[in-house]
Structure formats: C-alpha cells, structure tokens
Amino acid sequence: PSKRRGPRNRAADAIREQMMNSANGNHPSQSNSPTYAARTLASLAQQPVLSADNICPPSLLNRFVDDYFSFIHPLLPIPHEPSFRAALAAREDLNSPTFLALLASMIGCLVASVPRRPRQHILDLQMEAAFPNSGILIERCRRTALEARGSAYLDRPQTIEDAMISLFQAFIGAYSWHWDICRLYMGQCVTICRVLEIHRPDGPGTEAAVQAAKAAATHAIATGNVREDMMPPLPKADVVLQELCKRMFWIVFSTVASFQQLGVSARELNVPPPTASEPYPDLPLDIDDAYITPQGPRPMPEGEISKLAGFNAIMQVYKACADVSAMDVVYGSSQPSDWPHQKMILLRSLESVEGVSGIVPSIFLSRNQASSNEAARQPNYPLPTQGYLGHGVLVPFQTDGPNEQKKTAIEIQKANLYSAQLATRSYLLQKYLILSDEFRANNNPTASPMES
User: Fold this and answer.
1) Strand (E) or helix (H) holding 297
2) pTM for the complete prediction?
3) Mean pLDDT over residues 212-226, rounded?
C-alpha cells in the first residue's frame, strides 16, 4: 500500500538517519549527544599531564640541575639561576609548558655534552634499567621538550625562553652528531633573537621598551582601536631580563663565530656586523646571578671574582672577529678582492685576540697558574677509561658548596678561554694564508706569502 498505516517507527527512522549521516561523513546526532560529550571528557581526563616527571625521577632531576649550573652555566650563563630554581621548586613545570620545555632542553644539553657525569648519578641511584645509555635519556628530553612546546609555538608571542630552547636543541643536535638538526635549530634561535630585537638598546626589559609600550597603548586607546579595560598588562623594567638578553646575544654571536671557524658559510648563518645606528649591545655585567634582581644589581663582596668575568673574556676573543665576519659577507671567504684592506682587517683582529690576555683577570689565564699549587687547584676529573656503565666507578668531582662551584667554573672558563684563543688565532692565520696565496697567484706568482 502507498499510505502509511499506524504511527511512525521512530527507531527505524533513527537508524536510517544514522546510516545516511555515516555515508556522508557527518555525525551531528552523535556529536550533540550527552554520551558523546561524556566520553570526550573522560578521554581527555585520561591523557597524562606533561611534567618534569616525564624526563626522569625527581631525585635524578635535581642532580642534573645542579650539574648544569656547575658545568654548563659558566659557558652558557642562561637562564637566571635563582629565578629558575625558584620556579622549579614551585613546580612551574605543571603550569608552564615553556618552562618544562626549557628544563628538558637544559637536561638534554647537559647529558649530550657531559655524558659521564649523568652516568655516575644513574649508577649511584641504581637506575641503569631505565637509562641503559645516554642516548635514551637525550631522546626523552628532546621528546618532552617538543611535546611541551607544542606544534603551534611559533604562532604565539615569542620570549627569550623560546630562544633558549632552540639554542639548547641546537647544541643537543651538535653533540649528538645530527648536524642538520643543529643548523635548523640554530637558525631558528637566531631568527627568534632578531624578532625579539635583543641587540637593540630598547630591547626587552629596558626602560625604553616600557615607555614605547606605554606610548603605543595610549595611542591605541585614543584612536578607539582598543578599549582601556581590554588592554593587556604593560611590561615592566626588568634588569634580569635585560641581562639575559645580553647574555643570549653574545652566546649566539660566539656560537655562530665558532660555526664559521668550523667551515659554515657566513652567508648561511651569520650575525649582522655592528653599525653606527645599531651597535652590538654591551657585554653582560660582571656580577653573579645571586646579586642580580629584577629591580637592579647588588654589589658583590669585595675581592670576589664573578663567573661572568670569565664569560666576558671568552666573548672578547670572538668579538675581535666581528670585522672578519663582515669582510666575508662583503668580499667572500676566499676572494682577495681588496687584499690590502683585507690584510689590515686580519692583522688587526689577530692583535685584538692576542690582546685579550692583557685585559682579563690573571685567574683565568692558565699560564699564570702557580706550579707549586697546580696539583691542588686541578679538579678531580674522571679518568678517560672510566665513566661507562659497567666499566668501573667514576671518581667523584666535588662541587658541593659555592666555593667549590666557583673554582670549577673558573677552571672550565680558563680552559675554554685558552681553546678559544688558540682556535681563533689558527682560523685567522689560515684565512690570511689562503687569501695571500690567492692574491699572489693572481698578481705576483714569485712573491712569498709574507711578502704579500
């Protein structure tokens, strides 16, 4: 029959509608049902929350943090130690994904650059089953940092912590022999630093930046673009942020200079040379983190040497090559286009590198170390044949107490200052000989390199 008899079959209609929606890829009735919403909330509640526990247990994590500020922080004085430790004690990793990503990146950089020290802690705490080798711990740190950072981290406003995370990821790639990852994150770090304009006098945390933000907010309210009650909070002057920006700039500058000494082209990865309108920022203050607060620095005890003094001495070595990097961008790395001018730049840079030894405190110069106290001053480094799981026990490296930590930092900076001077002098001499040979081959084949 053509006419329906009796009431509509609601169950059959529901099944028919569900089949049609399934065929079309639509699920309106399912998505709007209370059952569907309850299942979604339950699934979200079952997802684990990222925290520092994803890296390693707290007992091991605290040792890693102490080692980072003992062995890595003298060369990479980021982040601000008192602020970071306070945030870690307050479990900021549960509330701030950026902080968690920074923590994981710091631990990964430590394990990748000083692998024997973490192995010692793993053996002491009997965690060999969870971390049979350094690679597993490094990969866990990388994965935790990437998951905490998220896929859309470039869409939100960048901070100095984002630049730090990219820098640590670059170092993890370098120490793990993943050069493509290293170059990728290093380029990202340089880009974030340029976006933040940390090289400018009115960079983040400065009074000039605060005044500029206030002027922009006043103009936006006056023109009616933004209501006054909808304005975000204005930034405040922060000396800690200022110092972190300075340190970050010089770390990036020295890292790029080291890459160029290893053969990376200046056109691929570079920090623009200073100009009259945009000079390089000043070196960081020679004050330890414990004496720097957001309101301003406090004087250090008389006669105490700051760890930043050694860091600034190393930066002076790389700063002497700023003109050479600019020369490579203009003329090319192996083209004697203007040999007299290039020769003058190379000789002047070489003199500047050698002159650093005369302006830094003598405690950072290895040649001034007294021979009678040399054995007592040398830290107890692990033996080369030890340090691997199952191959003996490491000799403890005592870093307990501020005095021992300061001595360790000075020894590390002393060795790196010497190696930086040696590598830079070799780099400048090699570049001088290459350009001299090229100039002699094109103009006077009978002249010697020194006569050129």
Assistant:
1) strand 296-297
2) 0.79
3) 73
